[in-house]
């Protein structure tokens, strides 16, 4: 129910900054509780976070040149 309330607040506000912060908050809640990262060691969590950042940078690096070519 908390995730639903966060989503509804994001939709009604509609500000891009609020949307980005809300998505990050929801991702953190999902990772902490549903993926049980709340109970893992700090090194494992940093490894997961680093892999997400690197993967995101690779995806953005592949998509940006296509967007600029349009």
Task: Please summarize what this structure is.
The chain is mainly alpha-helical and 70 residues long.
Describe the protein in words.
84% of the residues lie in helices and 0% in strands. The protein is mainly α and 70 residues long. It is flat and about 45 Å long. The mean pLDDT is 83.
Please give the structural blueprint.
Blueprint (H helix, E strand, L loop, with lengths): L1 H12 L2 H19 L7 H28 L1
Number of helices: 3
Structural class: mainly alpha
Oligomer: single chain
Count every beta strand, where a strand is a DSSP E run of 2 or more residues: 0
Largest sheet: none
Low-confidence stretches: none
Shape: flat
Distance between the termini: 41 Å
What proportion of the residues is helical, as a percent range?
A: over 70%
Radius of gyration: 15 Å
The pLDDT mean sits at: 83
Q: Which percent band covers the strand fraction? A: under 5%
One letter per element, helices H and strands E, the order comes to: HHH
Describe the structure using short key phrases.
70 residues, mainly alpha, 84% helix
